[in-house]
Amino acid sequence: MTLQEAQERVDSWIKEYGVRYFNELTNMAILTEEVGEVARIIARRYGEQSFKEKDKAADLSDELADVLWVVICLANQTGINLTEALQRNFDKKTSRDCRRHLDNPKLQS
User: Fold this and answer.
1) pTM above 0.85, yes or no
2) pLDDT per residue over 25-50, tens digit each?
3) Calpha distance 77→69 (Å, rounded)
4) Which of 21, 29, 104, 106 is the most buried (most CB within 10 A)?
């Protein structure tokens, strides 16, 4: 699925099942909540915290998909084409950082 297809599918789902998009401020709060759920899993799976018994089945892929869903909702409702935005971001990072990471001794292994 391309980003454009994902944007179209989310929009169709919202129109069929979601009634309407939540407003931008609500979606920003939801995005923050979803990112927090990703952080919780990462902190426990890869960090030093431990899972509570009830949280051991937490699914990182599902939480990342939730983050992506809300990002797509925000893009759709603000008129952003994520394919074009991502390409511009690649171009920006390439021109700005083309040597920075390659020359970083901390990244050399």
Assistant:
1) yes
2) 999 999 999 999 999 999 999 999 99
3) 12
4) 21
